[in-house]
Amino acid sequence: MVPGADISEDLLAELIDDSWNQVVNKLPKKVQQRLRPE
């Protein structure tokens, strides 16, 4: 997918963020903490 007539750049970024979060949520908590520094 690329931004263009069918999908906005904002929507593409949101889809990528949601996908990344779903993957990270499946990892052990210790790994999640390293990937999501607070």
Protein described:
With 38 residues, this protein is mostly helical. It has one domain (10-38). It has helices at 9-25, 29-35. The radius of gyration is 13 Å and the shape is elongated. The mean pLDDT is 89.
Low-pLDDT segments, ≥5 res: none
How many β-strands, per DSSP?
Answer: 0
Q: Rg, please? A: 13 Å
N-to-C order of helices and strands? HH
Question: Could you say how many structural domains there are in total?
Answer: 1
InterPro entries: YjbR-like_sf
Name some characteristics of this structure.
38 residues; mainly alpha; 2 helices; elongated
Describe the secondary structure blueprint for this structure.
Blueprint (H helix, E strand, L loop, with lengths): L8 H17 L3 H7 L3
Q: Could you give a short description of this structure?
A:
The protein is mainly α and 38 residues long. The protein has helices at 9-25, 29-35.
